[in-house]
Design a protein that fits this description.
The protein is α/β, with parallel strands linked by helices. The chain is built from 16 helices and 15 strands. It has two domains: about 150 residues, Alpha-Beta Complex (Aspartate Aminotransferase, domain 1); about 280 residues, Type I PLP-dependent aspartate aminotransferase-like (Major domain) (Aspartate Aminotransferase, domain 2, 3-Layer(aba) Sandwich). The chain is about 35% helix and about 15% strand. The strands form three sheets. It has a seven-stranded mixed β-sheet, sandwiched between helices. It has a four-stranded mixed β-sheet with strand order 1-2-3-13. A four-stranded antiparallel β-sheet has the order 11-12-15-14, covered by helices on one side. Strand 2 and strand 3 form a beta hairpin. Helix 4 runs parallel beside helix 13, helix 14 runs parallel beside helix 16 and helix 15 crosses helix 16.
Length: about 450
């Protein structure tokens, strides 16, 4: 299963990877189909991670591959600067129709990181367009992840990710994270404790003055921080405080959009209407890189002032609205709708949670959190060896044909939405065995 060390691996500097460790014992996959990854030697691994939170419709969907191929033969590339192509407008219309409330304008990017940086820039420019250019402060949250662009890293709340870069955006502050094991351990869905932590936003308003704050950005469910569902009522209270003080509320739904929580967007699940939503990952089923910012009409319309010939928002990317990405996105939305994958996800949630929480008595488990088709099994750390136990469990699972992801000392699970109950059983049976084998 593990490939032999090969000097040909040296050139690629891998992201978010201990490169020296990986290249001493590389794990390479060269095919994928349905719920499985396959290695060159034929070893098969059940994908319990949807790639990286993104392959919601399963691997190797011929409809998506055919759409990409057809688009590439017809129109491989055209800029979205001052010209366009039909698929970009069709895709934006489909997204706007799926989005909750008045989020009926779409700015297309190439990744979740770019979507976050774009949303932050929209927020800053929106207030300037309204004559409130002093609103420059951005509020993130501890343990939040918003990609690795300078804006997203600045509002992100993982100290280990920020530490190496030093000089990030200065007009930024952070809400405290919402997790407290004493009150929330082994929670299913929204914890009952913790809504009061939203009041910390009022403290930041008092500290900085509301007239200086442009936006608050949060993940409805913190994903990379270890699957941290919001306390019951927490997001609604953030919405109320933002509305009261004229602050934009941004939901980073790069992970939670497109069925992961049983709805098109987490905003629908929690009954909270943000002003902007960022999304990516499941947007194209991971087949072509793409991100998007869904923008409320009032925010969009504030830009549509002045001379008609003037560019309203001086921002964009060479590959914004790329034809192949739009083709993949349209085919992906078709699959979600035709196969009822959002509803399917919701229908599997209870069984998924039951199997996840059945691991509570396994060795080293100190917490389990689940919501939608997401789960995290958090392990106790060994002294002086933080995160190694989770990594070793990941390897044990891979040897037994299941791919799980470790984030720190948490094993994070987010399978494709096409998963069957028997495959849910396989994931948690293998995890149970692996936990018993790790010291």
């Amino acid at each position: 299963m593990l490939a032999a060390p090969d000097r040909k691996l040296d050139a690629y500097w891998m992201p978010f990877t201990a490169n020296r460790r990986f290249k001493s014992r590389p794990v390479l996959f060269d095919r994928a189909e349905g719920m499985y990854y396959l290695q060159p030697d034929g070893h098969r691994a059940l994908d319990a991670t949807a790639g990286l939170w993104c392959v919601n419709a399963g691997h190797g969907r011929s409809e998506i591959a055919d759409a990409i191929s057809s688009q590439a033969r017809r129109l491989d590339y055209i800029s979205s600067f001052q010209v366009g192509h039909p698929s970009a407008f069709e895709f934006a219309e489909r997204l706007a129709a799926l989005a909750p409330g008045a989020l009926n304008h779409v700015f297309l990017t190439n990744s979740g990181s770019e979507a976050v940086d774009t949303a932050l820039k929209i927020a800053l420019a929106y207030h300037r367009a309204r004559g409130e250019g002093q609103r420059v402060r951005l509020i993130g949250r501890e343990r939040g992840y918003h990609g690795m662009g300078f804006g997203g890293l600045s509002v992100g709340g993982h100290g280990t990710q920020r530490r190496a870069f030093g000089n990030l955006l200065s007009a930024v502050d952070h809400l405290p994270h919402t997790y407290d094991a004493k009150h929330q351990a082994f929670s299913r869905g929204e914890p009952q404790w913790g809504a009061h932590l939203a009041e910390e936003l009022n403290r930041l308003v008092q500290l900085h003055d509301a007239s200086t704050i442009a936006a608050v950005i949060v993940e409805p469910v913190a994903g990379s921080g270890g699957v941290l569902p919001p306390p019951l009522g927490y997001l609604k209270r953030l919405r109320e405080i933002c509305t009261q003080h004229g602050i934009l509320l941004i939901f980073d739904e790069v992970i939670t959009a497109f069925g992961r929580l049983g709805h098109g967007f987490a905003a629908e699940r929690f009954g909270v209407q943000p002003d902007l939503i960022t999304c990516a990952k499941g947007l194209t089923n991971g087949a072509v890189p793409m991100g998007a910012v869904l923008v409320d009409a009032k925010v969009h319309d504030a830009f549509m002032q002045g001379p008609q010939h003037a560019t309203e928002f001086l921002h964009g990317y060479t590959y914004s609205g790329h034809p192949l990405a739009c083709a993949a996105g349209l085919a992906t939305l078709d699959i979600y709708e035709r196969d009822g994958l959002f509803e399917r996800s919701l229908g599997l949630e209870q069984y998924w949670a039951e199997r996840a929480h059945a691991l509570s008595d396994r060795p080293h488990v100190q917490d389990i959190r689940s919501i939608g088709l997401l789960a995290a099994i958090e392990l106790k750390s060994r002294p002086e060896q933080a995160s190694l136990r989770a990594y070793e469990t990941h390897l044990q699972c891979l040897e037994r044909g299941v791919l799980v992801r470790c984030a720190g000392e948490a094993l994070v699970l987010s399978p494709p939405l096409i998963i069957e109950r028997a495959q849910i059983d396989e994931i948690f049976d293998v995890l149970s065995e692996a936990l018993g084998r790790v010291a």
